[in-house]
Amino acid sequence: MDKRHWPRGYRCNGHIMLNSEKMSKSTGNFRTLRQAIEEFSADATRFCLADAGDSLDDANFVFETAKAAILRLTKEISWMEEVLAAEASLRVGPSSTYADRDFANEINLAMKLTEQHYQNYMFREALKTGFYDLQAARNEYRFSCGTGGLNCDLVWRFMDVQTVKFCVE
Fold it and tell me: Which residues form the Methionyl/Leucyl tRNA synthetase domain (predicted)?
């Protein structure tokens, strides 16, 4: 393998837990990565693995986390489809309101923190800042804009950051 494909680092933690029980073939409490992807999807499995733990403690793959990720991601896809279908109703022009500037700042902050977490192999923290915190900022922005409407450029930037920037890490 070319050096450019070598890992830049690795992460070590204790045993792998499955729903808070030690994973073991002998007890039947066991899943391969392929089985998890087939059962929950690749994206939900990534969510669950990122949420499993960042420290030397035992990593815990929790089925409910994977199921919740499926619901969150499905809900997010629906929201994005709704926004794209109603794009003509979004406000155009520069970010002119306090809510616009605040949301743009939250996006920038999430990007910076998430990149730092990825560089430090803190995947749970990267998931928190790159998805959950960004979702909360988007929801606050939607609430803050009220009848004034969302800024089209900011919404597109948010969608780009959520779907492209953090997915390639």
Answer: 11-67
Distance CA 121, CA 114 (A): 10
The answer to whether the CB of 150 falls within 8 A of the CB of 141 is yes
Give dist(CA 84, CA 123) in Å, integer.
Answer: 30
- Say which residue the tokens 């994206």 belong to: 43
Q: Please, are residues 107 and 157 in contact by the beta-carbon 8 Å criterion?
A: yes
Residues 6+ apart with CB under 8 A from 142: 150
How far is residue 10's CA from residue 85's CA, in Å, rounded to a whole number? 42
SS3 136: helix
Scan for tokens 């960004």, then name that residue: 134
pLDDT (0 to 100) of residue 115: 92
pLDDT of residue 168: 46
